[in-house]
Specification:
The complex is a heterodimer of chains A (about 300) and B (about 100). Chain A is mostly helical and about 300 residues long. Chain B is mostly helical and about 100 residues long. Chain B is built from 3 helices and no strands. In chain B, helix 1 packs antiparallel against helix 2 and helix 2 packs antiparallel against helix 3. Classes of the chains: A mainly alpha (about 300), B mainly alpha (about 100).
Chain lengths: ~300, ~100
């Protein structure tokens, strides 16, 4: 049974024209931004914009099935795959500014303009007539019509597609596989290492009894001092790195903001204990915190090896 | 109703933008994204021609293009991660072992 699909194609003529031009301008702008913006994540977001707009255009042209496939497969699967790989490769990986081949960008732009002129001339010279009247195959019968074509006329390419997909999945698994170079640590070695590290218990969580519970907020010990062990070492090193290069990094912004609020900041590496703010610990407590800080890195390293 | 020629022209513009991006960008991930943009532009042209002819064959072809593009992305990104694991770089300029 075929459900009636609400189509943008059935909208009135003026609405369709306005929708097309607005969407087309946004799509071209997003595509241009994709090749001009340096950050790869921003490129992915702009590509998502283009793909969603194309899905809307499929719906406007009487292809509701393809519109949904576009959203599900492209925006949902392919772009998420891109974002996952971006997490592996590093989110800050941006383009190098130096040109490997001199004048390459200029020539690429010229070639692009030439190709555009060629294509526009071809499209302009071709007599593309008016569209065939939208029949049932563009609305209610779209899915069944496509299914009829795929499973009769194009059944052999369809089967070949399944072989292609299986091959691609196996190939991706083989390519992404990594041989283990060291023996996998067993539960016995893990527990032994944990006991030998001198701290068999879990580390304290960040923000316990503190004024905020953010990950960069050290937990407060019963005597009011701050536990340096409760903040991840990665955040500390990132904050130091950001401060050294004066470049805002993830985590560094948060810790820097804490400093501006004149809160005691034990995260600052080697710092002489932040200025005591309202509700901050007294000087004696800070000295205690420094004592803890000296032994903290050793224990933290022992804990990190376990993971 | 918008003429299919407008859609085809838009597809041509998006295709050219994607092509220029492939030539200009050095990050392999962004190059892949530009290839995807080109494939999407071609799909738009296919759908426009399907509407022009009042026939569903163009939509079937666009569907197959989507499937092949998905497979291509999977394999390409796997190659990208393995290259990154070996060379610590996602730039297309760094993978030049076959050059000399």
């Amino acid at each position: 049974m075929a459900h009636p699909v609400v189509l943008a194609a059935s909208a009135s003529s003026n609405t369709a024209v306005a929708t097309f031009w607005v969407l087309a301008v946004i799509a071209v702008a997003a595509a241009l931004g994709m090749i001009l913006i340096r950050r790869a994540v921003h490129c992915a977001v702009l590509l998502a914009v283009v793909m969603l707009i194309l899905a809307g255009m499929y719906a406007m042209q009487g292809a509701p099935f393809l519109a949904f496939v576009q959203v599900i497969v492209y925006t949902g699967a392919v772009l998420m795959l891109f974002l996952f790989v971006m997490m592996i490769v590093g989110i800050t990986a941006s383009d190098a500014i130096v040109e490997t081949i001199r004048g390459q960008r200029v020539f690429a732009g010229l070639a692009g303009i030439a190709l555009l002129v060629l294509l526009v001339l071809v499209v302009g010279h071709a007599t593309i007539g008016r569209a065939a009247p939208a029949g049932a195959r563009n609305s209610t019968q779209n899915v069944s019509g496509l299914a009829k074509l795929i499973f009769t006329t194009y059944v052999f390419p369809f089967e070949v597609t399944s072989a292609l997909l299986i091959t691609a999945a196996l190939g991706a698994m083989v390519l992404a596989h990594r041989e283990r170079t060291s023996p996998k640590p067993t539960q016995r070695t893990l527990s032994r290492r944990r006991v030998a590290s001198g701290r068999p218990t879990p580390l304290p969580g960040p923000g316990t009894y503190a004024r905020h519970n953010a990950v960069d907020m050290p937990a407060l010990l019963p005597d009011g001092t701050q536990s340096r062990l409760s903040v991840s070492g990665v955040l500390v090193s990132r904050a130091a790195e950001a401060r050294a290069s004066a470049r805002p990094a993830i985590g560094g912004e948060v810790i820097g903001a804490e400093q501006e609020r004149a809160e005691p900041d034990p995260v600052r590496p080697g710092g002489p204990g932040g200025p005591a703010g309202p509700g901050g610990p007294a000087g004696g407590a800070e000295a205690q915190a420094h004592e803890r800080a000296t032994e903290a890195p050793v224990q933290a390293n022992g804990q990190e090896e376990d993971q | 109703m918008i003429s299919p020629a407008n859609y085809v022209a838009l597809a041509a513009i998006l295709f050219v933008i994607g092509g220029v991006g492939v030539l200009v960008r050095r990050n392999a991930l962004v190059v892949f994204m530009c290839v995807e943009l080109m494939l999407n532009a071609v799909n738009l042209a296919f759908v426009a021609f399907a509407r022009l002819h009042g026939d569903l064959t163009g939509q079937v072809i666009a569907f197959f293009v989507m499937v092949v593009a998905a497979a291509e992305v999977v394999v390409g990104l796997a190659i990208l991660t393995s290259i990154f694991r070996a060379r610590r770089s996602a730039s297309v300029d760094d993978a030049n072992l076959l050059k000399y």
